[in-house]
Specification:
The complex is a heterodimer of chains A (about 90) and B (about 400). Chain A is about 10% helix and about 20% strand. Chain A has helices at about 45-50, 75-80, and strands at about 30-35, 55-60, 60-65, 85-90. Chain A is built from two helices and four strands; from the N terminus they run βαββαβ. Chain A has a domain at about 25-90: Alpha-Beta Plaits, CATH 3.30.70. Chain B has a six-stranded mixed β-sheet with strand order 9-11-10-13-14-15, with helices on both faces. Chain B has a four-stranded mixed β-sheet with strand order 5-7-6-12. In chain B, helix 11 crosses helix 12. The longest helix of chain B is centred in the middle third of the chain and has 30 residues, at about 220-250. Classes of the chains: A alpha+beta (about 90), B alpha/beta (about 400). The interface of A and B includes residues 3, 9 and 14 of A.
Chain lengths: ~90, ~400
């Protein structure tokens, strides 16, 4: 993509649309990746409550996985899980 | 011409009065000596229902400037005021306000920075912020403070500038002394500044925007280049605002204020209230036949290089008086920049520096006379014995 020059962009770092943080995939900052043991999960949603990046995917009352576009691998979900069904593993890149 | 009607105001009171007439949408401020009376008086106007301004009393100056940034991004005409350590506490957000191109106007009552603790006047607070991207106006007296605040709103909000402005006055000397000030009609002030039309508003759901995004190697430099252009534009277009001001109020403003310079051989260059004292000394020495003059820069940012060079380049010797020490080992900030301003001229005067008045140390006519005596010696001999002096300090 050709980048624009200083005369062709709005001043002050303004972007002329909202919700732009969504386009910046922070998941690539990750070193550790959460891995879930499906057999142990009780769908209590405590990980969903605590995840600071809203990366716990939920469907029909079930915890269905992680949004890896934004998960930074902080490990909070693994730490708060009452049944210890989430483990943090070194991600292979 | 009719004698103008003067009313008594301190520098702080006239600042609050100007803010009342401007009636910003939002004022977020924290009181600090010697700016306190600005916040106190303006809060009274709010409490009395004299203005419709949303006053946000905050818990610190960092919060004050942060709230101003938020309000300005919401599309509000926004003001605050501070001094010294309060300005220092705003530091991080000063840069964000300027870089986000928010036209916030902030009266600054100049006061020394700690340590040791001192509440009196010097310019180390605002001079420290000279690279923050804010425009800076320095005022000699209460009348200049009043007019400059009104002028600042117009300058800050111009589409081709869009930068915040500090309007500086000398702590206690100007802020607490009562002077006669000629005030304008409320309507005339409102008409001059006009309705504020923000560049964008976070409250406009029809036109959503992102403010303050992450801006890395790909675009940050372009945004800084634009900011540089904003400052260059300010130098070009501020004279248009001076003309509009003169048309509206019959008062002239300029980047610099020269006094008895045309046929002078030597001159002092100094900011703010000390220029008033120096003017008296110039008159006394002129009566004795000495060819002395004075230059008072009104703006320090943008730095009016051409205007300064034009006024000073024909002289034999110039003394720059700095009410702050830059701790570069090469004199005060005004000295460095005035000297650099003269470098490109075909001929230029010898330039020496006097650091004075730190922490509110008084400067007297005899001190300024001493500077002129030194200058006449430099002009006569063509030799500078000592480049940087400390005026009024005990050995």
């Amino acid at each position: 993509m050709t980048k624009k020059g200083w005369k062709d962009i709005p001043i002050g770092g303004l972007i002329e649309k909202g919700g732009t943080a969504k386009e910046y995939k922070t998941g690539d900052w990750r070193t550790f990746i959460p891995v879930k043991d499906e057999a142990k999960c009780i769908d209590c949603m405590i990980c969903w409550v605590y995840c600071p990046d809203s990366c716990i995917k939920v469907k029909d009352g079930k915890m269905t996985g992680f949004d890896l576009d934004y998960c930074k691998g902080c490990g909070i979900c693994a730490s708060v899980c009452p049944v210890k069904c989430i483990s943090m593993e070194k991600e292979k890149k | 011409m009719a004698t103008p009607k003067l009313a008594p105001f301190t520098g702080d009171e006239i600042t609050a009065y100007a803010m009342k007439q401007i009636e910003p949408d939002v004022v977020a401020a924290y009181p600090i000596t010697p700016q306190t009376e600005i916040v106190m008086n303006f809060s009274q106007y709010v409490a009395d229902g004299k203005v419709s301004t949303e006053m946000i009393p905050v818990e610190s100056e960092h919060s004050a400037m942060s709230a101003c940034v938020g309000a300005a991004c919401a599309g509000a005409r926004t003001m605050t005021a501070t001094s010294a350590n309060g300005l220092a506490l705003m530091w991080e957000i000063l840069y964000i306000a300027a870089s986000t191109r928010l036209p916030i106007v902030m009266p600054v009552v100049n006061r020394a920075l700690s340590a040791p603790i001192n509440i009196h006047c010097d310019h180390s607070d605002s001079m420290g912020t000279r690279d923050s991207g804010w425009l800076q106006i320095y005022c000699e007296n209460a009348q200049e403070v009043y007019e400059s605040i009104i002028l600042a709103v117009k300058i800050a909000e111009r589409a081709d500038i869009q930068l915040p402005v500090m309007v500086c006055q000398d702590g206690f000397i100007t802020s607490h002394a009562v002077e006669g000030v000629e005030v304008f009609e409320d309507k005339a002030v409102k008409d001059f500044i006009g309705e504020y039309k923000p560049r964008f508003s976070l409250l406009n759901v029809e036109k959503p925007v992102t403010v303050g995004p992450l801006d890395l190697q790909d675009y940050y430099f372009e945004h800084k280049r634009q900011q540089s252009e904003g400052i260059t534009n300010a130098l070009k277009v501020i004279p248009e605002v001076f003309k509009e001001f003169e048309k509206a109020f019959g008062k002239k403003h300029d980047f610099v204020d020269g006094y008895r310079l045309d046929d002078a051989e030597v001159a002092i260059c100094v900011l703010s209230s000390t220029a008033g004292t120096a003017r008296g000394v110039v008159d006394n020495l002129r009566d004795k036949g000495q060819k002395v003059g004075l230059l008072k820069p009104r703006f320090f940012r943008p730095f009016p290089r051409e205007a300064i060079a034009k006024k000073l380049s024909h002289l034999k010797a110039v003394a720059v008086l700095d009410r702050s020490e830059a701790f570069s080992g090469e004199g005060g900030p005004l000295f460095s920049e005035v000297k650099a301003a003269l470098y490109d001229e075909k001929s230029h005067p010898s330039v020496i520096n006097y650091i004075f008045g730190l922490g509110g140390r008084d400067i007297f006519e005899k001190d300024i006379e001493k500077v002129y005596t030194d200058l006449l010696e430099v002009a006569g001999t063509g030799k500078i014995k000592e480049k940087i002096h400390f005026l009024g300090v005990r050995d």
